[in-house]
Amino acid sequence: MNWISNYVRPKINSLFSRREVPENLWTKCPECGTMLFHRELADNLNVCTNCEHHMGITPRARFHALFDGGIFTEVKVPEPVIDPLQFRDQKKYPDRMRGAQKATGEKEAMLVAEGEIARTPVVVAAQDFSFMAGSMGMYVGNAIIAAAQRAVALKRPLVLFSAAGGARMQEGILSLMQMPRTTVAVQMLKEAGLPYIVVLTHPTTGGVTASYAMLGDVHIAEPNALICFAGPRVIEQTIREKLPEGFQRAEYLLDHGMLDRVTHRKKLREELVTVLRMLTGQPPAVKGDLPAPKPEVKAIAEPVPAAAMEPAPAVKAADPKPAAKP
Predict the structure, then answer these.
(1) How far apart are CA 159 and CA 218, in angstroms?
(2) At what angle do helices 268-279 and 59-66 cross, to 10 degrees?
(3) Residue 90: count of CB within 10 angstroms of its CB
């Protein structure tokens, strides 16, 4: 019995036991509740295939879809002083930073890169909302300044993707000082005559909206993105009135003149290329690269011999035979 219970039964159980399925294979759409397979969702740029709801996307995933061949070079950002105020709430600020870095795999809440979009050289900066709600701290201010300086040095336009809950409270007044610093960085681009395009994603709120996110030459937003300074819940509690449906959403702001375009994420790359090449005076982008035509090979005619050039002698017709006498 020991042999059966210790060997045979575990062997049978291992053959027929159900395998554990990883928890991250499926994602539930927060808008319509559809369960989406992770590969299908990634191929669709984190847009729900059922209701077209735009979910959050990391800067690296966005860059891989945006740049030609997914190839880009990161721009180095100066690192600020860590925890200058020795701030502590439920956790110490350095502990929160380490937790966010471990969860996202990124150093901070903004990534800056340079590359080409449809053969158009550009510098791009993108905020990561999953890193402490994309909050604007000293590092984010340094990143925007580094992106502007790099764009001016290379004479390239700057595209910025905003996604933030506002300033970072753990850095206090130092985070609020990034508002004038980033405004000066945007002014550098304008003095250099370089385009500055802002793509507002869900959500863009607080001090980010009150500074660099609303200083672009062209403002493009993703569908149904929340774009505001104070949130709708705060406004309702303050004025004690019900706000209109869709208030502070991208489509509402487009109707009231706050935005230039509302573009689907899958069409955003083509939209950016058109706007950038128009503002920089370049011809329209080539949709596809064709190989150069091969040179035509002409056959060399051989010289015709002189004898062949002489006319052929005339051939006399044979005389008809006389008819036989009867």
Answers:
(1) 10
(2) 70
(3) 6
